[in-house]
Amino acid sequence: MLKLSPLCLAALLLLQLPLAAVHAAPVAAVVDQALAARIDALVAPYYKPGQPGATLIVVKNGKTLLRKAYGMADVEHQVAMRPEATLRLGSITKQFTAVAIMMLADEGKLATTDPITKFLPDYPTQGKVITIEHLLTHTSGIVSYTGKPDFRTQSLRDVTVPQMIDYFKNDPIEFTPGTKHEYNNSGYFLLGAIIEKLSGQSYAKFVEQRIFIPLGMTHTAYEGHERAVVLRAAGHEQTPAGFGPSQPLSMSQPYAAGSLVSTVDDLAKWDAAISAGTLLKPASWKQAFTPYILANGTSTGYAYGWAVGKLRGSQAVSHGGGINGFSTYAVRLPAEKVYVALLTNSDSGMPAPSLVARQAAAVAIGKPFPEYKAIVLGTAALDAFDGSYKVDEKSSRVVRREGDRLLMQRTGRRAVELIPFSPDNFFVKESTDTFTFHRNAQGQVDQVTLHADDADIVFPRTGAAPAPRVSVTLGQAALDTFVGRYELKPGFVLALTRDGDQLFGQATGQPRLLLTPVSRSTFYVKQIDGEIRFDAGNAQLTLLQGVRTVVAKRL
């Protein structure tokens, strides 16, 4: 459900059934064993023995090229992952919700241009006109309920649809609808409510009866409404002690924005139905895959439940999902008739499914991402790239040499190592992005270009990198005065502990970070480019990270 951060809700530890009781879907004939082996060799190293795993399907020209499982379905009980395992989809759910809306449109029950108050007359739009299309394209300006400060605590409660809408409906509209794209789970929650009102069925029953059963998607359902005995993968999260069960979640909360569970086999059936033009009129399918254009004429790159872009120069329609315990990604390449779905059962501590799935898709279409071989550059050569490179008015990318490594850190984010593969070109581990530094006529570096898969983005150099923060020495007794628990928001606590002469902070569900004192009351958190300031009595702290400022009271 969460793009988060973008979108990570937490998963219930799912029941494991005996493998003999699990219905295995038939496997289509492999069309190219050599190609399948290349994809398998690319994917397998990402998933380690004894750790959470993944299920993968790669379909080409309507036939299964590769269908395989990696890692564990349940780390605690040492149950191996199986290709037929059922996992949470997270925000891949949104494309099913969008198609359900378009089915109702094809029946004449709504138009995407209709204001939502036509169907939800009591919804307070605060003088704005919010349409069905605004909800579909994340351009409504409505606050996303999963981003509210108390959502982590709220997410444990079973709620009705009206109760959840009440939770966010009175929050101020963030921008004029249609002027900005801001990923939003509230919009898709409201779409679920509209589906229920117009169909007379629950959201779970509508998608079951109108989509899953007709398409033979036996193992796809709103979680808790399954129709078949399945092997359910357990959800995991990374902790300092290793991978453990993920945080609990009431599945009444993600609803039409992220509540579905499925298998890669069923997702392949879903893609086949899309390719065949099933369920919707041709014009509606075209509309569903057309990116929304903002009021200023720029494209959002997002259509109705799908992101639309490029992969190795080919048109790609994709979406990911992040929900507590699970992370997912699926991409379709219409021209090459390739579909890749990758479902993983951990929400942290593993490679992004988008990275792995897109690499697999690139191999499947014969356009693999380049493999770069690292070279060694001397410290003087690396020093030439030192600088601050402007991203926008509020953030920049700072490049510094540390020893024999070159690091880049965007404002408020973790630093990444830039690894040279030529004098001016660098790659990043576990990423398909590369960076090229450009020089002016005098040979000085004046800008850097990010080569993303579907775009090149230039960041001009604005000056030298800021001087590194100078630390001060605080004794153990002084550090002990900061030790304690500070509430960043309900259910989300930053715990400070001392280890020897160092102070560490660890937020709920996050790794432990070193806090470096730069004054008697201020600490720098290098890993996230953040700063923590304590008030005079250490009764509260203020966390500054990027454009965010969070005050946390001591518990």
Description of the structure:
The protein is an alpha+beta fold. It has 13 helices and 29 strands. Strand 24 (502-507) and strand 25 form a beta hairpin. It starts with 32 loop residues before the first helix and ends with a strand. 41% of the residues are buried.
Present the secondary structure layout:
Elements: H1 33-43, E1 54-60, E2 63-70, E3 72-74, E4 79-80, E5 87-88, H2 93-106, H3 132-136, H4 151-154, H5 161-168, H6 185-199, H7 203-212, E6 221-222, E7 236-239, E8 242-245, H8 255-258, E9 260-262, H9 264-275, H10 282-288, E10 307-311, E11 314-323, E12 326-333, E13 338-344, H11 353-364, H12 379-383, E14 387-390, E15 396-402, E16 405-410, E17 415-422, E18 425-427, E19 434-439, E20 445-452, E21 455-463, H13 476-480, E22 484-489, E23 492-499, E24 502-507, E25 513-517, E26 522-525, E27 530-534, E28 540-545, E29 548-554
Antiparallel strand pairs: 1-2, 1-13, 3-4, 5-9, 6-9, 7-8, 10-11, 11-12, 12-13, 14-15, 14-21, 15-16, 16-17, 17-18, 18-19, 19-20, 20-21, 22-23, 22-29, 23-24, 24-25, 25-26, 26-27, 27-28, 28-29
What labels would you give this structure?
single chain; 555 residues; alpha+beta; 8-stranded antiparallel beta barrel; 13 helices; 29% strand; globular; disordered N terminus
